[in-house]
Amino acid sequence: MAVKFSLLLPLLLFFSVISAQTNEDPTTRTMEEFSGYPSEPHSCISDSLSLSVDKDSLQKQIDELSTFSDTPAPSVTRILYSDKDVIGRRYIKNIMGLSGLSIREDAVGNIFGRWEGSEAELPPVATGSHVDAIPYSGKYDGVVGVLGALEAINALKRSGFKPKRSLEVIMFTSEEPTRFGISCLGSRLMAGSEPLVRALKETVDGQNISFFDAARSAGYSKDQEDLSSVFMKKGSYSAFVELHIEQGPILEDEGVSIGIVTAIAAPASIKVDFEGNGGHAGAVLMPSRNDAGLAAAELALAVEKHVLDSGSVDTVGTVGILELHPGAINSIPSKSHLEIDTRDIDEKRRNTVIERIHQSAIAIAKNRRVKLSDFKIVNQDPPALSDKAVIKAMEFASQQLNLSHKLMISRAYHDSLFMARISPMGMIFIPCYKGYSHKPEEYSSIEDIANGVKVLAMTMAKLSLD
Ligand code: GLV
Ligand code: MN
Ligand code: MN
């Protein structure tokens, strides 16, 4: 395939340069001027793609987008369908427009920007990520894979490249589960999840706002339209490639520029509710209590125990939400609510942990004479494997660009986990400072980001010609 590409690309670029010189689109030129992207001459293209990333502009966009936040800098909080999310969406659509892409949005607000290829009837190559941000997180998670993808398109355009298959940048709705407890909402739906279509009819947020009311307030799902309209058929894309910060320390520790993801670990999340009698913190003596808060505390420790008992460092579990009702210092908790996240690269082992957590919840409720009023597995997703041909294309791109690279797995989940259900998938990781993520200290240098953008651009170019 590498041989075919190296023969085809110079040829294609040669014709592209000719056509760019003779048939320059004045609309595109004007948009480039507005966007502030330097319009570079195509003359340096010889036997490989000459890609330049406009680092200043990309950093400016990352910084600007981070200001659309409900918490103060350096933290970023951008929750699905909030005002800040809506402004962020407008910002992304504007940049898509400036890049000359044709824009479409679906019923839940997945946003698609397409650069039409010379053979537009072929399934396109897609890329993209998310820009929603969990409470008090950083400005790079997801954002690098959306703004970086748009810069990859700009870099390809500046180089004079003309795609055969169309190239599409997707901004996915709600990769983060913050508002409705459902991760990868947009990509999960795109991949055709019927259970999610049913669940969303009943889903409300912490303020009791329904999914449909929230979506309507952001301009989507106006008539509670059938969400199966979001589904995409297998084969709609010839490949999907996501650029993302690693969210772990390996690349930085080892001084490697690019991570080529071979598989994404299997995530699951669980919601648990306990109910007791509550009562006065002074008057109700210890033998008479059935404390829902202590049941939750005991279950949190049981989660840790079951995860550690798996004997593998690849098994992880987190109780990220623990709420007590009524939440007064002098009142015994009458209700408690936990949300548990557990993951593993081994699906069977992860499922064993879930089963043990369930058994513990039942036993704790019995021992403490509280009611286990709900034990709900919200999602229990299988892992995903990257596609061999996409891995090869990413390796080829890294080699061509002289960038050190290594194969690795993703312990975080991504929209790619679901895109893998309908398309050959691959992911490009770049280093991030100390592996920090989901906190304000999250950081990737613009040099590392630019490397990722170039690998993405070249990978898409290659896949577009396949
Ligand atoms: C994604 O945000 C994850 O939690 O892995
Ligand atoms: Mn995240
Ligand atoms: Mn992410």
TrEMBL record:
Root EC class: hydrolase
Transmembrane helix recorded as keyword: no
Subcellular location: Endoplasmic reticulum
Gene Ontology process terms (BP): allantoin catabolic process; purine nucleobase metabolic process
Catalysed reaction, written as an equation: (S)-ureidoglycolate + H2O + 2 H(+) = glyoxylate + 2 NH4(+) + CO2
EC number, as in UniProt: 3.5.1.116
InterPro entries linked to this entry: Amidase_Cbmase, Bact_exopeptidase_dim_dom, Peptidase_M20
Pathway: Nitrogen metabolism; (S)-allantoin degradation; glyoxylate from (S)-ureidoglycolate: step 1/1
Similarity annotation: Belongs to the peptidase M20 family.
The protein's name in its UniProt record: Ureidoglycolate hydrolase
